[in-house]
Every structure is written in structure tokens, then in C-alpha cells.
Write a structure and sequence with these properties.
The complex is a heterotrimer of chains A (352), B (308) and C (511).
Chain A (H helix, E strand, L loop, with lengths): L1 H30 L4 H14 L1 H26 L7 H18 L4 H30 L3 H21 L33 H18 L1 H11 L1 H6 L4 H28 L13 H11 L4 H25 L8 H23 L7
Helix pairs in contact in A: 1-2, 1-13, 2-3, 2-12, 3-7, 3-10, 3-11, 3-12, 4-5, 4-6, 4-10, 4-11, 5-6, 5-10, 7-8, 7-12, 8-10, 11-12, 11-13, 12-13
Chain B lengths: L1 H30 L7 H19 L2 H25 L4 H24 L13 E3 L9 H5 L1 E3 H19 L1 H11 L1 H6 L4 H27 L11 H11 L4 H24 L6 H18 L19
Antiparallel strand pairs in B: 1-2
Helix pairs in contact in B: 1-6, 1-9, 1-10, 1-11, 2-3, 2-4, 2-9, 3-4, 3-9, 6-7, 7-9, 10-11, 10-12, 11-12
Chain C lengths: L4 E12 L2 E12 L3 E5 L6 H8 L7 E6 L2 E3 L4 H6 L2 E4 L11 H10 L9 H13 L16 H14 L4 E5 L7 H17 L2 E6 L2 H7 L2 E6 L2 E7 L5 H9 L19 E9 L13 E6 L3 E5 L6 H8 L7 E6 L2 E2 L5 H6 L2 E4 L3 H4 L7 H5 L9 E2 L2 E2 L1 H14 L16 H13 L5 E5 L7 H15 L3 E5 L3 H7 L2 E6 L2 E4 L6 H8 L12
Classes of the chains: A mainly alpha (352), B mainly alpha (308), C alpha/beta (511).
């Protein structure tokens, strides 16, 4: 009975928070000279109004989902992995390397590419994890720093050794079709990355509910000292969690490359407009559990796409390029606001 | 070669100024127990506001004041969530970075979107210290800077003094080490933390304004480029001690300057990207090498009284 | 001369979610008296005193100081009314020096800047006045032993000119001798005009020095008496509501003493980390069927010893054998697999994961296939086990799926104890298992420990000398990282001297 009540309150708070963020966002829209009511209608249409729009929203949701699941693993383990962006980039690097330089026959090539993305992304995350465990270096700083390093590595590769001389824009050669993720919905950009994302969500659910590893991660995340006394190796658990975290973010990067662009590029057309950071928002909004993250990423994807659509409709004199980011930022703060609602409304009491 | 070193160090000091200003505030905040990873966001928005303010009023100092007010306001939000409500300072900080990033882009587009090239605004002029700036080598390095840079340097002894020689500093350190104990001694933990958090926002405001008005004389999205995080690294490297933090900021500022110069000169055929990575690699490296740092015991731990 | 009432509290009530900590309490304090507030853990004494010192606001009731009603919205208001409190856990800033701590208190009252010579002079004169000679004003508080820290707390109150002094369980960190000295000091201070409230759960102390005793039970005042009119039995009955159980320890079974379950030889740890005590040449052994009690004042190495035996702390030299196998520096996991159960100190901090459900916590430290099979959790078994334990140990919770955090402190502790005892380990290690618990739970746990003794060797580390004497077959005392076993027949007095380092026993070589 009480658990049901707690669950309802959490949902109600989430809805309240979303409403609050819609309100704040409306203020911004108004400041831009737009009528919030019509603006929201356009956004809604842009998000889910047509088949094309819906698929585009899902396209945005895919990397958020994958990276968000990864962030969820790390946060649940008590590690503040802010490095999803960098891990995404490095995953993309791994995927590109495998795509361009490890040719294989058809179905295997894609698998190799995926493996490469996971390995490189995961490895990139393991470094801060090990630094934290062995040398007690703060992981927030290391993961952040490594984001920037990763971005510049990609820049170097794309402008340097991997640059394809055939194209005018700085980019690598096109990936062979053996690495292309199949499109799920014909005449759209929605690619099989969505399936990968959903499979990963199932993976996360199973791990945390049914496996010792998930159990260990949860104990380490809640109370590392208790974990230690409990015979759990905190070091090993953290490193495994970080590897999975980075690996999933790496898959997000791979998804963008093999599902949409089919080459690695940089410059103005970066592969990620901050998906790594936004996925942290998705993870938090989703309450760090698998299905919550899936729903949150789809929601943010819709919002993002809807606002982009609004932007194309009204022209950039009204709405600047990064409006979607702003909306998402408001959403994050709403996550925190949700916490306030929860605290206020929660039935208090200890079992005596 | 001599010229290279001179300009390098001068530039290093210039770049370090922003770091020092920001670190000043954030060290106070962290010593009292509040971590603001949002300083990256504060600086971004402040850089824009400073630039815009100078554009509107024609006076860089007024622009800076606007920047300071904006950053201060954001820091109060962080403070409210984390101090009064006790929310996770990490989550709040991340939220602020995302929000501030989006807000900055948005406001930039709103204010300057219709310009094809950015207007020239009044910026912080370099003020040569009479006589001293003529000294060979040292002169150009130390005595040809904007007023804010001199101010930043003068802040260091002030900071040290407040911290270790006044009762306010004593209270801050107490709150950061043992909030419950300080409470029983009659110290208002929340007020002290609010003041320090606001200080962090205000100084980040100055830092951001200096970046746009004092260094690049322009505004560009993403110009903060992780400097807020570098400040955090500097504070850890400096073991939360004002003098050491200052030294760390100088170090990072110099590396930043090195990175700029090398990009242009293309020395030794090392690709452009590696120079850009350098500040982050150095920051990470120094964090790895430094052992024996001890953070304030109450850092990131909220203090709420009804806990019995 | 009749004493005037300096502090009165009327119908004070304080509710917390799920419990009533203080239920319409009436209490008064006369000037110059020592008034003991007696009650078992959880009776509400500390809550009442936290209200008086300004940390908590009462839901109902009045506080009247010197015949004027006052309202405390924060500690500074209480400080201004000259009420000072020495908390159970010291409220000094550990990394500050003595002078800095005193200066800090003064900052809230007057216009002092950071430690100046004024503060130093004041401190020195206070030290002189109260015959305190052993404290270096420039020493860092965290380097001082508990007894000296307590003195600093007292000087702090004097420096702030407090007149009403509240002491919350002050003797819990002191040796027998230090306790005597403290109580004498309190008597002297009362004679000079200070009004003292002594919060304690120890009947002996209350009877020894107080003028009046008020007994609290479950948040209510059970009675308020002149000390000279009452006795231990009556007080105990008032405190607990019934007569205390007499727990008798049956004599140890000599036959089982063949098998040594734990043997420690010349264990030594490094002294690199700050703030910990190094262990020097620790040797002892425990056989199946006996309880070895290790006592000593907090901070003399007990935690470090516990950590070394459980595999959390590395030892630099020496040997540790469990059931005959060399387990020196083995990982906690290996030690657990050898069949060792342990209940760590502060179990709420290190023994359970507060955010996880009870059922998940009962499976902690258990790697057996019934719960964990090929990396997967056997949820059915885990839940069944959890339900069984909850019933057997009478843990109050409506479901095993609730997060452990929602249980009361005593029940959280029961989860840890239940979990470990249910595993039928051959070596059971306990650290302060009954700290902070109510009498009923304490009796229960003591009984369980004696039960466990039948089939295991038990190492009981405790700062409660009475508990040690009650349960242990043999007693050893830790002092400054050294362990010395006390000869049979040593009583409280002599053990107290050992804890203060004033008797050096011959190191008993165990065969």
C-alpha cells in the first residue's frame, strides 16, 4: 500500500516538474516573440505529428537512450561519469577504424564495428575509473577533461590521417555498406540503432534485477564501506561498471555513424550536438532505471526534434540554433524540482 | 626566443586572470562545503552578458557588472537547491551547465543573431604601470595588463588574509570541516554557505566578463572551453589553499597560452589538435601526480538540522 | 538555603515521522544542582536536550529560563541564555587547534577576529583556574585523546560564560578512573553555582553524584525523585518498565577448547595513515565455545584490529590463522568464505546499504549458491531467507521489500545481527553490537551471543565494560595499539586501570 503511494507520488512529481519546465520554456518562447500556445502546438506536431517527424524524434532519442543507459550504470555505482560525450566520440573512433580498416564479409563487419565501438568507448571510461580506484583521483574532473581530449582526437583524425581527399568537407571516407545499420522504417532515417538501444535497456534491466553484478553495483553505489565488509571488491565492480558505461556511450557514437552519417566528420557538422551531456539529463530524468531512461530519452528526443521543427518553421530570426539545448536544460532543472515535490509530498515515517 | 618567452608568459598571466578570479570565489565556496561544478555555466553566460552589456552601455565595466549579476543570480539558484533543500550538488551543477549553455546560445541568438559579424565593443584596456612596465623582460610580462589582472593579483593576499586571519574565514573553514559542530557553536551554517556560493557566482561573473572583454574582445559560443573545469582541477591541485590554488592557476594559464602560441607557429609539425588537447592533458596529469590532497570534510554534504 | 529554579520545561513535545520522541515532558533544574536525566537508549533524552540547546524546535511546550519564557530558533539563542551542552559526539572541529575552537565559539558572541592573543590569554587563565594542566592549546583537537577533548569542550563552555551545563553521556568515552575524575569535577562546579544536567543510561553514575533524578521512558517522564530517596532497582524498573533480565553466562565448555578458530600472532600494521592507531605485536587466540572480550577506551586500536582481522586493513607483519589456515592479508571475501561472521562498529554506516531493501541486505556477505547461482540472484530464496530472519528476530517491518532506511535504528541493527548470526559461522566477530540500542534489544542480542557461543568462537570488541564482563570468558584490553590479556579475577577497577595504561600485564602466551 505504501509502496504504491510512493510510486504515485513520484509520478505526480515528475508530471508537475515537466509542467513547470513547460511553463519556463513558454516564457522563453514568449520572449522570442512567439505565442507560446501556438508554439507548443507546432512543437507537438514537429515531435509526433507526422510519420516523418516521429521517426526523426526517435532518431534523436537513440543516442540519448544508449548513452543514457550507460550513464545510469555509472551513476548507480556511485561514479559520477560525466564523460559520456567523450566516450561517445571515442566509440565513434573505434567504429570508424573498424569500418574503414577491418574489412569483413557482410554480417560480421557490423558486429566487428560494434565490438570496436564498445571496446574503445569502454576503455576510455575505464581510465578515469582506474584513476579513481587506484589513485583516488576525482572522476568528475577526469571524465570531463577526457571529453575535451576525445573531441580533439576526432578532430585530428578527421583532418589528418583519416581525411578523405575525395571530399571537400573534412571527413573520412564513406563507410562500406556492410557497416550500415538497416533502416527500420522505409523512407526515414530511423535505423536499427533503436533496436540496439532497446536490447541494451533489457540488458540493463536484467543485470540490475537478476544478476550478482547488478547487486554488487547497487551495494557499492549505496554504501562502498558496506560493500567492502560484504566481501565485494569495490575496485572490480567500479571498473566493470565504467566499462559498460563507456561501452554503451560508444555504441551511441557508433549508432550515429553507422545509422545516419556513414562517415566520421568534424567541424561545424559534429556528430554530436552534446548528446553525451543531454543523456545525463535523460538518465536523471529516468530515475536511473532502464525503462525510465528509455521513456525519458524518447521524450527528450521528441522535445528536441519538435523545437528544431519550430525553428525551421519560424526562421532563425526568432529562434536561434541551440534552442533545443535550452529546453533540455530547463528540463534538467525540472528534474531537481521534481525532487523538491517528492520531498514535500512524500508520506513520511519510519516503520517502528 | 626571448620574445617568445616574454609574450608567452604575458599571455599566460592574462589567461590565468580569468582562472584566478573564478578560483577565488569557488575556493571559498568549496571550503564552506559547497561544490559548484556549474561555474562553467556561470562563466559562459557571464561572458555573453559582459559582451552584451558593453555593447548596450558602451562601458565594459557596466557590462561586467551585468555579467556579475547574472552569474550571481544563477549561483543563488544552485545555493537554494543545495543548501536549503539539500539536493545533490553534482546534479544541480550538471543541470546548471546544461541550462546555462542553452541559455547562452539562446540569448546570443536573440541579441546578436541578426549581425553578420559581431560589433566591436569597448573592452578592458591594457594599462601600463608607469616605470615598471619599462623594465626589460619583467616589464611586459608583469606590468602591461588590464586593470582586472592587477586586481586579481591583489586579491591573493586579501584572500589569504580573510581566510586565515578573520573570524569570517574561521567560520568558513569550520563550516566546511564540521557543519554540525559549527552549528552548536552558534554559527549560522546556511548563511555562511550562501555567502560563499554567491561569491563563487560573482567571481565567475568577473572571470567570464574578462574572457570576453579582456582577452578575446569578442564572444563566441563555447569559448569557455572547459575552463570552469580547469578551475576545479586547479583547486584540487592547490589543495584548497589560496596560495597553491593561485600557483595552479598560473600554471594552467601558461599552458593555455602555450597552446595558443604553438597552434599559430606549428612547431615541430605537431598537429594543431594536440596543442588544443594540451591544457586538458596537463590538468589530468597533474591530478594524477598529486597525492596527499585533502578536501574539506563537508564538501558536497548538505547540512539539514532536523536529523535527530 | 532553598535553591531557585533556573530552568523549567513545560509540556514539551517533539514528534518525528512515525514516533513521538518527547511526549509532554515537564522538567526543571535548580541552580547549583546536578540533575540526572535517566533513560535507556531511545527514551528521548537527547532529543529533549537538543531542544534545550537550540538545535531542534519543540512542537509544543514552553521553555522558561530564569523565570522568562524563551524561544530558541537556533543554537545561538540558547548560547545567549547561557545554556551550554557537551554532546555525546564531540562538537569540536577536528582539524582546528584548541585555541581556534575556542575562538570559534567566541566569534558568535563578541567581535573577535581569528585566534588572537586575547583568546590565548583567556584560554590559559581558564586552564589555570580549573587546574587543567595537560592540554597544549596549540594542539590539533583530533590528536587529543577523548578525555582531553572533553576537557576542551568544558573549557569552551566556561569561556562562553555558560551557567547551565548539559552533559550527554559524558562517561561513555572515559576510563573508569577518568569517569571518577569527571564526576568529582562536576560536583565541584555545582558547588560553585553551575547548574548541571547529566544525561545518562547508567544507574550507578546517576545515583553517585546527582541531587535529583528524572526518568524518561518512551518519551514520557516516568518520575522525578530526590536521589537519596531511591535505589538501583526502583530506577531500573522505572527506566525499562519491568525488572531487568538477569543474564547468566554458563561456564565455558572445556572440552571444546581444543579447536582454535582464530589465532593471531605478532600482528602489526603500518602507521602511515593519519588519525589511526598502529597495531603493535598483537597476539591472541580464540577457541570454539568461548568468548574473548576486548575492551579499552575508544581509539586505542580496536577499530584497526577489527579491520585487520576482517581483511579490510593490510598488516605489515605477523600472522593470522582462521581454522588453521593462513589468512593473513586475505581479501574480505576469502575470510567470509571461511565461515566468519562479523558485525562491524556503526553497523548503520558499514554493515548495511540503507537505500536497498531489507531482503537485499540480508543476502549481503553471503556468497552461497542458495542465493547466488552462476552470477544470477535467486530471488525466491533470498526473499524466503529474509522473511525467516524477520520473524525469528522480531524485526519490525511490514515487508522485506522496504528499503532498510525506513526501519528504526534498533531494527536496522537487528537486520545486521540477524543476518550474521543466522549464518551459523564458526567465528563470530562483533564490534559494539549493542551501542545505542534499547534495553529489550540489548538483552535479546546478549542472549543470541551466548547461544552462538555454543558452536563458535566469539570475539567481542566493546567499549562497554559491563557488557564485556557479563559475556566474556576471557578479557583483554587494548591500549595504544597493544593488546594485553587480563588475568582471571580482574574486576572493574583493575580493568579500568589497564584501560588507562596504568597496569602492565604480562603478555599471556596462549598455547
Amino acid at each position: 500500500m505504501r509502496r504504491k503511494k510512493e510510486f504515485l507520488i513520484k509520478c505526480a512529481s515528475l508530471i508537475l516538474a515537466i509542467l513547470a519546465s513547460i511553463f519556463v520554456a513558454s516564457i522563453f518562447l514568449y520572449v522570442c516573440g512567439l505565442n507560446p500556445a501556438t508554439a507548443w502546438q507546432v512543437i507537438a506536431y514537429g515531435a509526433v505529428g507526422s510519420r516523418h517527424n516521429m521517426s526523426e524524434s526517435m532518431v534523436v532519442a537513440i543516442p540519448l537512450m544508449l548513452a543514457g543507459l550507460g550513464v545510469g550504470f555509472a551513476f548507480k555505482c556511485g561514479v559520477w561519469n560525466i564523460g559520456a560525450e567523450g566516450q561517445l566520440y571515442m566509440g565513434a573512433v573505434g567504429a570508424s577504424a573498424a569500418a574503414l580498416y577491418l574489412p569483413c564479409p557482410a554480417p560480421w563487419h557490423l558486429i566487428v564495428v560494434m565490438l570496436a565501438a564498445v571496446l574503445v568507448g569502454g576503455g576510455w571510461a575505464v581510465i578515469p575509473g582506474m584513476l579513481k580506484m587506484k589513485l583516488k583521483v576525482n572522476e568528475i574532473l577526469t571524465t570531463l577533461m577526457m571529453n575535451y581530449i576525445a573531441i580533439w582526437i576526432v578532430h585530428y583524425l578527421v583532418y589528418g590521417p583519416w581525411r578523405s581527399l575525395k571530399e571537400i568537407n573534412p571527413q573520412t571516407a564513406f563507410f562500406p555498406t556492410s557497416t550500415w545499420l538497416p533502416i527500420l522504417v522505409p523512407r526515414s532515417r530511423l535505423h536499427a540503432g533503436l533496436l540496439i538501444g532497446l536490447i541494451c535497456a533489457v540488458f540493463m534491466y536484467v543485470v540490475f534485477r537478476y544478476t550478482k553484478l547488478g547487486y554488487n553495483i547497487k551495494v557499492v553505489g549505496t554504501n562502498p564501506k558496506a560493500a567492502q565488509y560484504g566481501g565485494i571488491s569495490v575496485s572490480k565492480t567500479v571498473i566493470v561498471a565504467m566499462f559498460i558505461s563507456g561501452g554503451l556511450a560508444g555504441l551511441a557514437g557508433m549508432g550515429e555513424l553507422c545509422g545516419i552519417h556513414h562517415y566520421l566528420r568534424d567541424g561545424i557538422y559534429r556528430i554530436s550536438p552534446g548528446y553525451g551531456y543531454i543523456s545525463i539529463g535523460a538518465a536523471l530524468l529516468g530515475g536511473l532505471n532502464a525503462w525510465g531512461i528509455v521513456i525519458a530519452s524518447i521524450f527528450i528526443g521528441c522535445l528536441f526534434n519538435g523545437v528544431s521543427y519550430l525553428k525551421t518553421m519560424v526562421g532563425s530570426e526568432y529562434l536561434h540554433a541551440n534552442a533545443p539545448q535550452l529546453i533540455v536544460g530547463v528540463l534538467i532543472l525540472a528534474v531537481l524540482a521534481k525532487g523538491i515535490f517528492v520531498k514535500r509530498l512524500m508520506p513520511k515515517g519510519k516503520e517502528n | 626566443m626571448e620574445l617568445f618567452i616574454t609574450t608567452l608568459l604575458a599571455m599566460g598571466i592574462r589567461l590565468a586572470t580569468a582562472l584566478i578570479l573564478c578560483a577565488f570565489g569557488e575556493t571559498f565556496s568549496q571550503r564552506s562545503g559547497v561544490l559548484s561544478i556549474g561555474i562553467e555555466g556561470y562563466m559562459a553566460f557571464a561572458a555573453l552578458m559582459g559582451f552584451a552589456g558593453s555593447y548596450w552601455t558602451g562601458n565594459p565595466w557596466l557590462g561586467a557588472l551585468l555579467a556579475v549579476a547574472a552569474a550571481g543570480a544563477m549561483s543563488l539558484v544552485h545555493g537554494y537547491l543545495c543548501i536549503t533543500w539539500g539536493f545533490s550538488q553534482m546534479v544541480s551543477g550538471i543541470g546548471i551547465i546544461l541550462f546555462a549553455g542553452g541559455l547562452t546560445s539562446f540569448a546570443f541568438g536573440k541579441i546578436f543573431g541578426h549581425f553578420s559579424t559581431l560589433p566591436k565593443v569597448k573592452f578592458f584596456e591594457v594599462v601600463n604601470v608607469p616605470m615598471f612596465s619599462e623594465i626589460p623582460m619583467i616589464g611586459p610580462i608583469l606590468f602591461r595588463h588590464a586593470l582586472l589582472t592587477y586586481a586579481a593579483f591583489l586579491l591573493i593576499p586579501l584572500f589569504y588574509f580573510v581566510f586565515y586571519r578573520t573570524k569570517f574565514g574561521l567560520k568558513i573553514r569550520a563550516v566546511g570541516e564540521y557543519a554540525a559542530g559549527s552549528d552548536t557553536m552558534g554559527i549560522n551554517v546556511h548563511i555562511i554557505r550562501y555567502i560563499c556560493t554567491l561569491l563563487s557566482g560573482v567571481m565567475s561573473g568577473w572571470a567570464g566578463a574578462f574572457l570576453s572583454l579582456g582577452i578575446s574582445h569578442s564572444f563566441q559560443e563555447g569559448m569557455i572551453a572547459g575552463r570552469g573545469f580547469i578551475v576545479l582541477a586547479a583547486i584540487v591541485l592547490g589543495n584548497w589553499n589560496p596560495l597553491r590554488v593561485f600557483g595552479a592557476c598560473l600554471l594552467f594559464g601558461t599552458v593555455d597560452a602555450l597552446q595558443y602560441k604553438m597552434q599559430i607557429l606549428k612547431y615541430w609539425g605537431i598537429p594543431y589538435a594536440f596543442w588544443l588537447m594540451l591544457p586538458y592533458i596537463v590538468a589530468t596529469g597533474t591530478l594524477v601526480i598529486t597525492r596527499k590532497t585533502r578536501q574539506p570534510s563537508e564538501l558536497t554534504i548538505p547540512y539539514l538540522r532536523e536529523q535527530a | 538555603m532553598p535553591k531557585t529554579t533556573i530552568l523549567r520545561v513545560r509540556k514539551i513535545s517533539k514528534r518525528f515521522p512515525g514516533t513521538i520522541a518527547n511526549d509532554h515532558i515537564d522538567f526543571d533544574l535548580k541552580k547549583g544542582e546536578i540533575h540526572a536525566l535517566l533513560g535507556e537508549n531511545g527514551a528521548g533524552k537527547t532529543t529533549l536536550m537538543n531542544i534545550l540547546s537550540g538545535l531542534l524546535k519543540p512542537d509544543e511546550g514552553e521553555i522558561i529560563v530564569r523565570d522568562k519564557q524563551v524561544f530558541f530558533s537556533s543554537p545561538i539563542d540558547a548560547i545567549r541564555c547561557k545554556i551550554g551542552m557537551v554532546h555525546q559526539q564531540f562538537m569540536l572541529i577536528p582539524s582546528f587547534t584548541v585555541i581556534e575552537n575556542i575562538a570559534l565559539c567566541l566569534t558568535s558572541l563578541k567581535g573577535f577576529t581569528a585566534p588572537t592573543s586575547k583568546v590565548r590569554d583567556m584560554t590559559n587563565s581558564l586552564f589555570q583556574k580549573y587546574e587543567i594542566s595537560e592540554i597544549d592549546p596549540d594542539a590539533e583537537v583530533q590528536q587529543l585523546p577523548a578525555g582531553k577533548q572533553q576537557l576542551v569542550e568544558i573549557v569552551k563552555m566556561l569561556a562562553m560564560n555558560q551557567e547551565i551545563l548539559i552533559f550527554d553521556e559524558p562517561t561513555s568515552v572515559l576510563t573508569v578512573q577518568q569517569t571518577g575524575i569527571l564526576l568529582e569535577r562536576l560536583k565541584k562546579m555545582a558547588k560553585v553555582g553551575y547548574s548541571i544536567v547529566l544525561i545518562t543510561h547508567k544507574l550507578g553514575e546517576a545515583l553517585a553524584i546527582s541531587d535529583r533524578i528524572t526518568v524518561l521512558r518512551k518519551g514520557r517522564v516516568v518520575g522525578s525523585l530526590e536521589t537519596r530517596n531511591t535505589n538501583k532497582r526502583e530506577l531500573a524498573r522505572m527506566m525499562v518498565g519491568r525488572d531487568l533480565l538477569e543474564i547468566k553466562r554458563p561456564p565455558a565448555d572445556e572440552k571444546k577448547k581444543e579447536r582454535k578458530v582464530l589465532e593471531v600472532q605478532s600482528l602489526r600494521t603500518s602507521n602511515k595513515s593519519r588519525g589511526t592507531t598502529t597495531l603493535k605485536d598483537i597476539s591472541f587466540s580464540i577457541c570454539k565455545g568461548e568468548i574473548l572480550g576486548i575492551g579499552g577506551v575508544q581509539g586505542n586500536g580496536q577499530s584497526e584490529l577489527f579491520e585487520a582481522i576482517t581483511g579490510i586493513r593490510k598488516v605489515v607483519s605477523g600472522k593470522m590463522m582462521i581454522k588453521g589456515c593462513n589468512m593473513t592479508n586475505a581479501s574480505p571475501r576469502k575470510i567470509i568464505d571461511m565461515g566468519v561472521g562479523y558485525i562491524p562498529a556503526k553497523p548503520m554506516e558499514t554493515g548495511i546499504a540503507l537505500g536497498l531493501p531489507v531482503a537485499m541486505n540480508t543476502a549481503l556477505r553471503d556468497f552461497s549458491p542458495q542465493f547466488f547461482n552462476w552470477g544470477f540472484l535467486n530471488l525466491k530464496n533470498i526473499h524466503q531467507h529474509a522473511r525467516k530472519i524477520i520473524a525469528e528476530y522480531n524485526i519490525q517491518t511490514s515487508s522485506e521489500d522496504l528499503p532498510v532506511r525506513s526501519l528504526s535504528g534498533g531494527n536496522q541493527m537487528k537486520v545486521v545481527v540477524a543476518r550474521e548470526m543466522a549464518r551459523k559461522s564458526e567465528l563470530l566477530i562483533l564490534f559494539d553490537p549493542t551501542a545505542g540500542l534499547d534495553v529489550g534489544t540489548i538483552e535479546f542480542i546478549h542472549q543470541k551471543i551466548l547461544e552462538a557461543r555454543k558452536n563458535a568462537g566469539v570475539l567481542l570488541v566493546s567499549t562497554d565494560l559491563d557488557e564485556l564482563l557479563l559475556l566474556s570468558d576471557r578479557v583483554a584490553i587494548m591500549f595504544r595499539g597493544n593488546l594485553r590479556e587480563a588475568p582471571r579475577g580482574f574486576d572493574r577497577e583493575k580493568l579500568g586501570l589497564m584501560m588507562a595504561g596504568e597496569i602492565e600485564c604480562e603478555e599471556k602466551k596462549n598455547s
